[in-house]
Amino acid sequence: MRQLVVGALRAWGKFHAKMFQLEVDGRPAALRPMNCPGHAELYALRPRSYRELPLRLAESGHVHRLEQSGELNGLLRARSFIVDDAHPFCAPGQVAAELRSCLELARELHNLFGLPLRAELSLRPADRLGSDDVWDRAEAGLRDGLRVAGISFEERPGEGAFYGPKVDLHVADSLGRSWQMGSVQLDYQLPERFDLRYVDAGGRDRDGEGAPNPPAIIHRAMFGSMERFIAVLLEHGDGWLPLWLSPEAVRVLPVGQADEPYARAFAEQLRQAAVRGAVAPSGPLAARIRDAAAARVPVVAVVGPRERAGVSVALRRAGARDHDVVSLAHAVEGLREEVLSRGR
Ligand SMILES: [Zn+2]
Fold this sequence. Notes:
Elements: H1 2-15, E1 21-24, E2 27-30, H2 36-43, E3 55-64, E4 80-90, H3 95-112, E5 117-122, H4 132-149, E6 152-156, E7 166-172, E8 178-187, H5 189-193, E9 216-225, H6 226-236, E10 250-254, H7 260-272, E11 277-279, H8 285-294, E12 299-303, H9 305-310, E13 312-317, E14 324-327, H10 328-340
Parallel strand pairs: 5-6, 10-11, 10-12
Antiparallel strand pairs: 1-2, 3-4, 4-9, 5-7, 7-8, 8-9, 12-13, 13-14
Helix pairs in contact: 3-4
Bound molecules: zinc ion.
Zinc ion (ZN) binds near residues 36, 87 and 219.
């Protein structure tokens, strides 16, 4: 308990200027600025065995930071946001594999959204805690993880935190601006501060003879702030999202009034196939096609007398010059497949 209080006080010392402070029932209180101490407390709730490690605690954690008003920038920098935060607690022998899997997950997730990922590896600073041996292993673990995950990276000597090296994940938007998103950081210090322990295979915990070290914590945020991620995703694609993610994947345009029931039946089939579609019935066709592009709808389906007669639809992808006439069943199945596979 004492250690928890000390840990909380140190965090307070570092963060209090960025915390929203208030008074509740005559006692000081604050809105939480980060999720890590809470996860450390969850770990410390009861004795842990080596069999439970790696123990991965994850949360879409709502955090609050009192940023200066001049620093605020739409969704890119907000005072209240959600972090996709996870903290794997690992025994020493598990650290390298866990780092690798964090970095592989980062690459996989960014590939899914079509975002090119670049990393910065911040290495040991002059003023640091822990032996060189521990730092050697920690840095090698991150470096190997980046290589295995196939993420291009630059090294930043001296830029790591005093308690561990760190990988920052960056994405460039459509204007070439680089944004820091998630990060993967190895930390031997927080477990020490919170007096975290586990019982090893020999039944020893930290007070025993030849006791095991505290578990290492990996701070793992893949997207970082979800609000910032959404902003960067929209900026990166100039508003275009992958079809599976678009709020409106397909806009169905009947040529004339007589084509409307057919258009609605097609939209209904799309809906049943879990493809988000909508019908836009009125107005000149060319204007409706322009409107769909302005609304960043990735697929336009035109249906007129010819399509009705052939039980087909004319699909046009964003950016394509021509329509592609395909059978209605084929269109539904192809779009469904694309949504389910998330374009992969
Ligand atoms: Zn953390």
